[in-house]
Amino acid sequence: VKYVYDFTEGHKDLKDLLGGKGANLAEMTRLGLPVPPGFTITTDACREYLRTGSEPAALREEVSAHLAALEQRMGKQLGRGDDPLLVSVRSGAKFSMPGMMDTVLNIGLTDDSVGALAAQAGDERFAWDSYRRLIQMFGKTVLGIEGDLFEDRLDEARARAGVTSDVELTADELRKLVDQFKDIVREHTGREFPQDPREQMDLAIHAVFDSWNGERARLYRRQERIPHDLGTAVNVCSMVFGNLGPDSGTGVCFTRDPATGHQGVYGDYLQNAQGEDVVAGIRNTVPLAELERLDPASYAELLRIMETLENHYRDLCDIEFTIERGKLWMLQTRVGKRTAAAAFRIAVQLIDQGLIDETEALARVTGAQLAHLMFPRFDADSGADHVAGGIAASPGAAVGAVVFDSATAVARAAEGERVILVRRETNPDDLDGMIAAQGILTSRGGKTSHAAVVARGMGKTCVCGAEELRVDAAARELTTAAGTVIREGEVISIDGTSGKVYRGEVPVVPSPVMEYFEGTTRPGPEADDLVNAVHRLMSLADDARRLAVRANADTAEDAARARRFGAQGIGLCRTEHMFLGERRELVERLILAESDGEREAALAALLPLQQGDFTELFTAMDGLPVTVRLIDPPLHEFLPDLTELSVRIALEEKPSETDLKLLAAVRRLHEQNPMLGLRGVRLGLVVPGLFTMQVRAIAEAAARRRLAGADPRPEIMIPLVGTVQELEIVRDEAEAVIAEISREHGVELNIPVGTMIELPRAALTAGQIAESADFFSFGTNDLTQTVWGFSRDDVEASFFGAYLEKGIFGVSPFETIDADGVGSLVRAAATAGRATRPDLKLGVCGEHGGDPESVHFFHRVGLDYVSCSPFRIPIARLEAGRAAT
Ligand code: ADP
Ligand code: MG
Ligand code: MG
Question: Its domain of life (predicted)?
């Protein structure tokens, strides 16, 4: 293997081997830009060093050969002679990592060479400043000495000299500082600061290798899901000096504004400075535009180079440069990070400039960025009172009075008050309160906790797992880590994009992108260019995608919004939501019925209500498919809680007949594992008339709409099927009802009947099931639970944290589909289903339908559509387009 590449040998696509910095230094060199010569030691060498604990022999030789070539080329020797060569040793992994070792500059300076450097440059001060910087950086990053020890001496020197910045220190003062710094090194390492230039370089290289496994680096990689086995490259680069007086300096710049994407000159410059001075904030930098006045020639050259780089990378670049006595040098470039808004604007600008095509533009933006743009934001400059932080679970900015329970949330919201529901954690009972609240704050749980999942589904702001907060619902107060007590009714603001919690009301700015999707802002010459960029990219995605996008919606209001957002139908209407509230009592009557007569009466009371629901839904989605799932959850969910009911009855002097019957029913229906119990198709098979009532309501509503001249397109979906026999029975019953209603009204009803595929057995026998199904909809939530054998409601709190921490999975399988496990069942079932019935329609509903990575998977598997909550529809559209290009 080759361990070392000269800057003239590499190129930008070798990031795996040369790291991002090395690959781009090589690329700039190839482009003929002024890059100080140097070479890059590969990540292979780093991995080998970390594996064996020492430098491979071949590496040492190669470094020697490249150093000799560099010396030859520069006509100088590392740290020796009249004109000593100095180098920087710079880390640089494939992904930029703030947790890594810093760069060491001025390597090669010694007690001997410092004099030569001074003579060569004709500047004593400069030479001693460079030497003290070397010992300071080397001491801190290579020898591991506390950085403050050096900083304290520097402060003292400034104080002694009566100056405020280090440029004002004289050569003599800096020379004294160098002595003090060398003392620190001796005291803390028991040896002298190394006077052999090559030893300095080798130690710095090893320190970069070792920093790969430093604690901060490991932590950063875990958070960013960067693999631990990549290793880092090391760049050895000949020094150029920005600290050679007022005609020298160093700066950073962007080829366009990374915050907004707008074109212009963005950056900072610092005269007479080296390396980190610009970002360290020791002295005040000037805006890059000032450089035009300070050094017009270098400024003009920099602008030319910026253009070259943009045209070459065809993207926003960020740049680090240094000017040495009027000569410009490029020290780094990379495709720059940007905000979501900038990403959309830049993608469109680059199409217009002819730099990228439409496919490439779609690759440059993501659904996650789009999600970001859809939420309102807090005004960043408002000086808000930050009191706590948690996990940014569902983006947005919410303000409201603190409430600690659902009932209070509902009551206060009904009075027109904005509230934030604060809970230790939420559960299904909190649904009403969550709906009523502006936002949800919990002190426990992660990104897949109940609060987070439900809030994202509703497009509601949520901060969860704010562990430093003490939530005392009984006392109706909340205590921050700093001991501040916030009582019920006090206003707080929560930022679901950053996870921050503020006391008091932080002003909010609305999102123009959301207004665009809602249809209240139209694209056009008058509109914000961000709206136009989003519109353009959404149109490109819609043209490109093969996957249709449907909505999970149960109400006409949700359906209408989904349609505005671009939904092509409803992929999942959960009918159980229609049995809540006042209708719960009717379901109770159905469950308690002791005779056919009683049961029929209860069903007859439910029928017109259901029919009304469907009529509204078909109206909102006229002309588009509406997949109605028959009732799915265990029946006991519609009954009171066993403990509560027992207590209530125990307290009654003479319990009523009905109460006793109710208690008996609750006992009878109690299940240890309700999610694996009497629910879905199983209910339809054992509670006579329940499914047929629902089918009747659907068919009646459809028939009447049809007679009224509309175009209703219902589809009936049977949940939790495990075997084709279940489906056959239910399907026969359903078809009989549909035929009857069709005859009654004299209209032809063409209502497909299909099934959820959400049990492993269903997936494994999909070929048989397809004989009785017009379509499959993969219920990947339940399928994930049953394939992994873990309960979504429990695992999040008990061990997901540990699993994520240990890297068993990088992301919860409830958030992104587990392609290897659950996904391979989906793939197999799709193939088997289509083998039986080539025209079988295939879709997916559930959380995964709106998750970017999962959408790409469903595209690859060849499904026909994904279905997700209304707020995720634009994201699914964009990602489906990206997947297809
Ligand atoms: P980081 O990864 O933190 O950006 P760099 O390796 O880019 O670290 O080094 C930080 C800064 O040090 C650079 O921006 C540049 O100003 C300075 N620097 C690095 N190498 C040299 C060099 N050979 N000559 C002059 N300055 C250098
Ligand atoms: Mg840098
Ligand atoms: Mg299910």
Answer: Bacteria
What's the pLDDT tens digit per position in 438-475?
999 999 877 667 788 778 767 789 999 898 999 999 99
Burial zone of 324 (CB within 10 Å; 0-12 exposed, 13-18 middle, 19+ buried): buried
Question: Any bridge partners for residue 263, and if so which?
Answer: 256
Domain residue extents for the chain: 4-238, 249-335, 376-510, 545-631+683-884, 635-670
Per-residue pLDDT at 429: 75
Helix (H, G, I), strand (E, B) or coil at 726: helix
Measured in angstroms, how far is the CA atom of residue 786 from the centroid of ligand 3? 10
Residue nearest (by alpha carbon) to ligand 1 atom 9:
103
- Domain boundaries 4-238, CATH class: alpha beta
Yes or no: domain 249-335 corresponds to CATH 3.30.470.20: yes
CATH 3.40.50.970 is right for the domain spanning 376-510 = no
Q: What's the gap in Å between 574 CA and the centre of ligand 3?
A: 10
Mutation choice for ligand 1 from 41, 88, 329, CB with most ligand atoms inside 8 A: 88
Q: What digits encode the pLDDT tens for the residues 564-614?
A: 999 999 999 999 888 887 888 888 888 888 899 999 999 999 999 999 999
**Centroid of ligand 2 to alpha carbon of 78 (angstroms):** 23
pLDDT-derived band at 280 (thresholds 50, 70, 90) equals low
> Do the domains 545-631+683-884 and 249-335 match in fold?
no
Number of C-beta neighbours around residue 16 at 10 A: 15
Q: Which CATH architecture has domain 545-631+683-884?
A: Alpha-Beta Barrel (3.20)
- The residue type found at 128 is W
Q: What is the pLDDT of residues 691-716, one digit of tens each?
A: 999 999 999 999 999 999 999 999 99
Q: Give residue ranges with CB within 6 A of ligand 1.
A: 36, 88, 90, 103, 105, 237-240, 250, 275-276, 320, 322, 331-332
Q: Which residues surround ligand 2, an ion (CB under 5 A)?
A: 320, 332
Whether the per-residue pLDDT at 873 is higher than 70: the answer is: yes
How far apart, in whole angstroms, are the C-alpha atoms of residue 35 and residue 880? 42
Q: Which helix (H) or strand (E) holds 401?
A: strand 397-403
Residue 656 tokens read as 């009523």
